[in-house]
Design a protein that fits this description.
Layout: H1 2-28, H2 34-48, H3 56-60, H4 67-76, H5 81-88, E1 89-91, E2 97-99, H6 121-125, H7 138-144, H8 149-166
Antiparallel strand pairs: 1-2
Helix pairs in contact: 1-8, 2-8, 4-5
Bound molecules: iron/sulfur cluster (SF4) (2 copies).
One iron/sulfur cluster binds near residues 58, 63, 107 and 123.
Length: about 170
Amino acid sequence: MKELLEQLPQKAKEKHPENVKFLRRLKKKPPKNLDYIMQDLHREEFERTDCLQCANCCKTTGPLFTDADIVRIAKHLKLKPQKFIDTYLHMDEEHDYVLQQLPCIFLGLDNHCSIYDVRPKACREFPHTDRKKFHQIGHLTLKNVAICPAAFNIVETMKKQVHQKSWSS
Ligand code: SF4
Ligand code: SF4
């Protein structure tokens, strides 16, 4: 996995022009059954993927923390929301609360998340490959394929499937 993660940014860079083209086309003309295609691809890929061997998302890109995340996690840690913000978060240029440092402070040496049951919504949903209207988040997917090996594989498989099923005529 270490080697795979080291190679991933370069592999994503090589695929970038092709992915830009594909995701633009997907946005313009999404297949009618895209949500189902994505759910299947996501499920199949994550059946093969052991996130505990990876944790690259927790190490290299942190989640955004919504107000609901902050209240829930602060309560779990028995902190006031403001104390939680002051201790762990800062506000970025886009006025979103993000982690003060990476890897995420809640990631253990064994790659387990110490706040797993109450983790941010963005962590639960990453890499967003099973979300509805996947064609609307092409910009995010272009970034995520360089971070997440599962997202990289899903996009590679998707390029073959969607071309075959929907754009072959
Ligand atoms: S979601 Fe992707 S980047 Fe995060 S641990 Fe799983 S495979 Fe790795
Ligand atoms: S809160 Fe948990 S799942 Fe989210 S980045 Fe931190 S360690 Fe990973």
